[in-house]
Each structure stands twice: as C-alpha cells, then as structure tokens.
Amino acid sequence: MSYYPLISSGTIIEGSPEENVQSPIISIRQLGKSFQSGAGKNAVRYQVLKDVDLNINKGEFFILLGPSGCGKSTLLNLIAGFEKQTEGELLVDGQAIERPGKERAMVFQHPDASLFPWLNVRENIEFGLRMQGMKKGERKAISDRYIELAGLTGHERKFPRELSGGMKQRVQIARVLANEPDILLMDEPLGALDAFTRRVMQEELVRIWSETKKTIIFVTHDIQEAVLLGGRIGIMSIGPDSRVFEIMDNRLEYPRDLTSREFNLIQKKLQGIFQDDLYFHL
Amino acid sequence: MRYVRKGLQMGIVSWLLFLVLWQLFAMNSNQDYFPTPVQTLHGAIELIADNSLFTYVFISFKRVLLGWLLGSLLGIPAGLLIGRFKWLRQLVEPYLNFFRFIPALAFITLFILWFGIGEQSKVILIMYATLFIVILNTAAGVVNVEDDKIRSARSLGASERQILIHVIIPAVVPAFFNGVRLAMGNSFMAIVGAEMIAANEGVGYLIWTSRLYSKTDWIFVGLLLLGLMGFIGDQLLRWLGKTSLKRYGIAKETRFGR
C-alpha cells in the first residue's frame, strides 16, 4: 500500500525479509486509542491512533517518526503500559500488556520531570534495584557498570540540578539500563538538548545500543535524527486516526556519516514524504 | 563604603536606622504614649528583674510549639491522603475552602467554652491555625508531583506503596516545609489573641495588662519580643531546612518571606 514508489526501491527496501522469520518482541494488531474530553452532552471523542499494525524485532533500533501531535508518544505510552488501548491488540513477548513493567523502560523527554532531584546520580541509577530489595553492595556493582557505560564516571555524587541537560539524559538512560529491561522506550529524549550536545548524545546512544543489544523504540520528529539512528523507521500519518503507514529500512553502516551521499538520499526521500500534499490526506 | 554594604547585607544598617527613627519620633511625642528605645530597655530590665519576661516568653513559645507541632503532625498525613485521592479531595475541598476563611482568633471564645480556660484551649487554637495551611500546602504539593516521576518509578518496578514513600513524600517536602513555615507565622498571631483574652501569663497577656498600668514601655517590650520570637523561630526552621532537608530542594526557594 505504498504511495511512494521511491521508498520501496534503490537503497531502501520495504519490509526486511527477516521480519517474517523471527518472531517479533512486540506485535501490534489493529491498535486504536481514543480519548474522551468533556462530559455529558459536551463529550468529545478524539481518535488518536487507529488501525496501527507494527512488528518490532528483538534487538532492533526502531524509530517512530512523525510531526508533533501525531500520536507517537501515545503509542509509546501504550507499550509502556501507562495507558490502555481502546481497540486492538498489543503483545510483548506474546503477552498482552496490563501495566507498566520493568522489562519495558521509558526514557522521558524532560529529565527534570522524571529524575528524582533528592537523589544523587548513583542513587537515581540504583532506584529500581533498591525498589526490588537488592542489597547495597550488589547495587553498587551494577550501578558502577552503567555509570561507566553512560559516561558518568566522576559525577556519581552530584545531584541532577548540578548537571547539564545532556548529563541528565545520561543519568536517565543509565537508570533504566541498570534495571536490565528488554525494551527501551525513548520519547524524544534528545529533543530538549542543544545541537552540539544532541550530536554527541546521538553517537553515545548508538554506542550504548550496540554494546547492550537492547531493543530500542525511539520517538522523534527530526528526520536527520531518524536516519542517523534508526535501523527501521516507522512513519506515522498525521492525526487524528494516526497509524504507521510506511516502514523504511535503513541499512547504512553505523556510525553513520551525515555528509555521505547515501545518508542524504534517504533523508531526502523522507523529507519528500512529509512535504508531499498526499501526506496530509492519508 | 565597604562596611556600609556589609552592614546592609546583614541587616545591621536597617536596625540602626530603625533605632534612630524611633528615638527621633519618640523625642517629639508624649513619651507616656511613645517611649524611647532607652525607656523600653528600662522596661525590659524591670520585666527581667521580676522574672516575668523569660517566663512569659517561655510560656508563649511552649504553646506555639506544641500546637504547631501537633497541627503539623496531623496535617501531613491528612494532606498526603487528600492530595493522593481525588474523591477525598473533592469531598473535603469545600470544607477546606470554607474554614480557612474563619481565622483562628474567631474560635477563641468557643474553644474556651469547649476546652476550658487552661492550656488545652490555647494549644488547640494553635493547632487549628496550623492545620489548614499545612494540609493545603501538602495536598497541593502532592497534586503537583510530576506524572513523569510517578511513571518512571512505576516502570522501574516500584509498587504503589513504594511510590508513596520513595517518590511522593520526598517530592512534597518543599511544599510541606513552606506550609509549616507559614503556619508558624499564623500561630504567633493566634497565640497573642488568645493570651489577650484568656490568660494570666504569656506575651499577649503582658501586652494586654500593661495597658491597665499605662506601661507603654512594657507594651513595646512585648511587641519586640513577638517579632524576635517569630524571627528566631523562622530562622531556626530555615536553618533546619537548609542543613537536614537540603537535598529536597528547600534552600533555594525560601528566600524572601515564603
């Protein structure tokens, strides 16, 4: 059902062959989510997501790309278990999602809202382990590993307010990794950073992903970021009734070169989709 | 010039200026009604000599501290519950919004009838003056805890009970602390009223009875004592907040007044 012949040709291949062989870690069928605002006669239903179909494979770096308000974050919240779908099926490892779980960890856009300011870096990172009743010594061994992995060595005793935006996001990432999740859900985690820090963090993220082999679902509205990070890029239609209408394979080697011809070709094709009038009438 | 700036910073300049203006004003007034700083100091020495000054201060302070502590201890859990459960909030919000407009002073006569003329009625009055502010501030603090914090904790594997203890309570500490500080101010207002109407000891009593002997200098002593007690109480609380509650983000938001 591609409107865009460009995407299914050339360097970009729609639907990877492995997808059918491997059983997906996340499987989404005919998923819908609507919100009701107001009450009684004034009640208005807003259908954010409708008929979302998507499989996500173990260990892949998957990007959800679309403009603001298209329901990317809502889809992520459904996978996290913060909200419940109104229609369809959402399975993780074959199980329906009932509630948030530590196997599906969320990295939020705003670290100030999600980190615990009364805990220092190490204590923030050890939070999940402490909640599970792990002893101090064991916790330290694990947090040491992720402090190093996230590049936070030397900052263990600082409080979030003493850190820059990029460092805070490192803490958030280390905090969820310490909990050994299967899936990392990232809701525009680099969106609030300045361009330089953002570039560094993008590289860091690719490094962390290739070292930990976690499944990552990364939400962004930045096309360049999508091409830089994603193994597959799910393009969402504009809301209401948003869905993933196209999945693009991106098999460029990591680390990716922003200035290479291939990179720009993919980026241009993606830009083409969002600039096309057809996009607004999907 | 440097000493002046230093003095300004520490408030010394303000107080010297205050004393000078006071002296000038008193010299140009009838000193039976408006004593000079020196006369006030003599009054204070009289009161120290007959042992009443420290006794009164101690008694007023004890009443405030007891009522304020009890009110705060009751207000924290109440505020936490009200902030946490929407139905409870909707149930009690009308009461809170009604009763907070009835000042504690208005209840004095009733409390004396109910709880007697002794200490009990005064402590309960302070409790009343404290309770609503602490409840409202704590509950508002709970409501304002960011969703992302609770969601983070939940997806890190925390139970609902752990979320209350390890996320909501620490996040509410600054709001609660603010409430407790405001309540301290209210408590001083309430205790003076109570002691004026129904007490034979305390700073409020001192101010009220000095009128009978036309001892305006004692009245001045009483007023200064009230200011001093409130100031010291507040500084003590701030120091406590800065040292023991620093990690909860108290130090930075309690600069001017509240």
Automatic annotation (TrEMBL), chain B:
Keywords: Cell membrane, Membrane, Transmembrane, Transmembrane helix, Transport. CDD domains: TM_PBP2. Its main location: membrane. GO terms for biological process: alkanesulfonate transmembrane transport. The keyword Transmembrane applies. One of its GO terms (cellular component) is plasma membrane. It is found in: Cell membrane. It is a multi-pass membrane protein. It comes from the Bacteria. PROSITE patterns: ABC_TM1. The chain crosses the membrane at residues 64-83, 95-117, 123-143, 163-184, 218-237. Residues 57-237 form the ABC transmembrane type-1 domain. PANTHER family: ABC TRANSPORTER PERMEASE PROTEIN MJ0413-RELATED, ALKANE SULFONATE ABC TRANSPORTER-RELATED, MEMBRANE SUBUNIT. Belongs to the binding-protein-dependent transport system permease family. This is ABC transporter permease. It comes from Paenibacillus rhizophilus. The lineage of its organism: Bacteria, Bacillati, Bacillota, Bacilli, Bacillales.
